[in-house]
Amino acid sequence: MKLKLHTDDYITAIGAVGLIRLCEQAERYQWIGHGQTFVEYRDDHILVDSSVLQYLPDWYFRSLLLQYSVASREEKRLRHLGTRNRFQTPKGQIKLLRETINDKRKRLAKYFSDREEYLELEQCLEEVKKLKADQDEETLVALRDRYLELLRIPEFEERLTFNVIRSNLFKGFFGQASFLQKTLSHYNLEQHIEKMHEDYIKPLVYDIGLHQILQDKEQSAEERYKALIDYLDQATESIYKRWSIYKRWRRELKKLDPSQVDHYFQSELHCVFEEEWLATENFGEKHFVPLGLSGDLYNFAWEFNNQPVPISSWIRLIMLLSPIGVTPYTRLVNGQFETFYTFVYSDGSPRTLFQDNEALRTLEQNESFERLIPKIVQRETHKARQKIKVNIQLFEFYSDIEMKKTVLNYYHVPQYMLVYLSEKAKLEFIKDRDLRDNFLRLALENIDPIRYIWSHLEKAVKGKASARAAYYALSERLKILNEKGEKRVAKNHWYIDEMFKEGQKIRNKLHSRVEERKEMTDYVSGGEKRAAGIAYRLLNAAKAGNKKQFLDTTLRLYLQVGESVPMLLLNVFHEEKIDFESLSGAFITGLLYDNRNQNEPEKNLENEQGVMNDE
């Protein structure tokens, strides 16, 4: 039987991508023989051969074991050990390896304490404990490699990786549904596969059988009625007690005439995602935590309607595949890195949808948001250049079921942002990750990111952030405003660069005056402190949009250091050449930017960012 799955809703689209990805992986890793095709593409849906159901549990967990492989992650995390770098001392490297081995040893002790390989792991830990910081680096590398080799033992890898899989799926996707129950945490691969088959595949197979009987119009009403009663009798003896709906159908059908069967099932609840399927349960947090409903707490995204959302066993299985269909990446939240999941939904066929998301999963695994999003859009560059209207929506979510918290964002990328991201964006020059990430998010929401740039400059005034990052953020903001067609915005980046240089010039003059006064008096406040104090006053004026105060302060500053006032500064009031925010921000950034403390010689920042003057 061919199972239809529409991709016009992002929930089912995520599951569809997950299903197609599993089929692709099965062929790539030879989990199944070549030449079998389980998915057929249509304009707005896919047709899935029901014979694939028997393989899905095995493929599902093999895919997750690859994605969350502890051995692979440890190899990436520890590959720097044994190399000298300014971020971690030899003593710190030894401590990291010792704590890592000890952590894994404790996790494996419950299951493998009597195995020879486990004893080797303990011996490896003892040798690391004896290491001294001044010892040969090759010894540390050898112990690291020995630890990683032990970690790759199939039983060790499987046990440790399943701990990660269960934690991620429990926290962000399904809670304690089915095989994720805490009492089943000791399950191995075969037991997980069997549990998924029992809870997800078997009920769906019975629903398919029921569906086929109801669709069979060749039999007489009496023959179909008898076949239906017999089938429900058999199903109620085989399926879990929670499938009480089969018992209800059987009980109520026995009171009806065979000619009333079609009308009866037409009046029953159908799946909200695939209407040809009968609903067998209601949507809840165990199906997809980010949109979950629990008890009397309803998710108002469902049209503010406090009614259950009926779904079929087919959609229930599709939702289970969502961890395979999304792309994980890291995001800095309140000073800590959290794993978010994203999905790109664009106009086009299911095949295009899969190709876009497959590129993310295979090439951008664990990429940060602000680096990942421009690469999504670059795949659509040819459409933008051909002036075809591209419709791209981005969904990202982070959930923690124990905290009862979900962050779910929808981004509909405007046309001007498509052009900017595909052709002009140089976000990689904004080295501060927090600024870069939030800058892009605000821009995608059609919100001017200037407020976050001000916040970053406040940190720079206190010496807790880089003014250089703010310079690049102002430059990228100007590009976006140009593409957006904002009035009173300069198309030429030269103005920002000039005001930045003016700020630097004033900063250098302040330092020179301080050095001169030091020769004549015992105490003089440092030039750094004076520049920061002036920058703070100018920043307050810029944030408040107080052009008069900003101009008055800068004019006095120029007179104080004995420099002539540039004509561009007078643009503050009329904003003919450049908007006030860009001008003031560039000047403040230059005032705070100390190129003497940089690790590399000062460069022409305009050229470094690849900005083209087009005036």
Provide a descriptive summary of the structure in words:
The chain has 615 residues and is of the alpha+beta class. It has 26 helices and 9 strands. It has helices spanning 10-28, 56-67, 70-78, 90-112, 116-129, 137-151, 154-174, 189-215, 221-238, 244-253, 261-267, 313-320, 322-325, 350-363, 369-378, 381-385, 415-424, 433-444, 450-461, 467-484, 494-518, 527-544, 547-561, 571-574, 580-592, 605-608; strands at residues 2-6, 39-41, 45-49, 281-282, 310-311, 327-333, 336-346, 392-400, 405-412. The chain has a 4-stranded antiparallel sheet, sandwiched between helices. A hairpin with a 3-residue loop joins strand 2 and strand 3 (45-49). The protein is flat, with a radius of gyration of 31 Å. The N and C termini lie far apart (64 Å). Residues 294-305, 381-389 and 598-615 have low confidence and may be disordered.
In short:
This protein is α+β, with helices and mostly antiparallel strands and 615 residues long. It has helices at residues 10-28, 56-67, 70-78, 90-112, 116-129, 137-151, 154-174, 189-215, 221-238, 244-253, 261-267, 313-320, 322-325, 350-363, 369-378, 381-385, 415-424, 433-444, 450-461, 467-484, 494-518, 527-544, 547-561, 571-574, 580-592, 605-608, and strands at 2-6, 39-41, 45-49, 281-282, 310-311, 327-333, 336-346, 392-400, 405-412.
How many β-strand stretches? 9
Distinct helical segment count: 26
pLDDT below 50 for ≥5 consecutive residues: which ranges?
Answer: 294-305, 381-389, 598-615
Radius of gyration: 31 Å
Which class of secondary structure composition applies to the elements?
Answer: alpha+beta
Mean pLDDT: 83
Oligomer: single chain
The portion of residues assigned to helices is: 55-70%
Largest sheet: 4 strands, antiparallel
- What is the first-to-last residue Cα distance? 64 Å
- Quick one: overall form? flat
- The percentage of residues in β strands lies in 5-15%
The order of strands across the largest sheet is 6-7-8-9
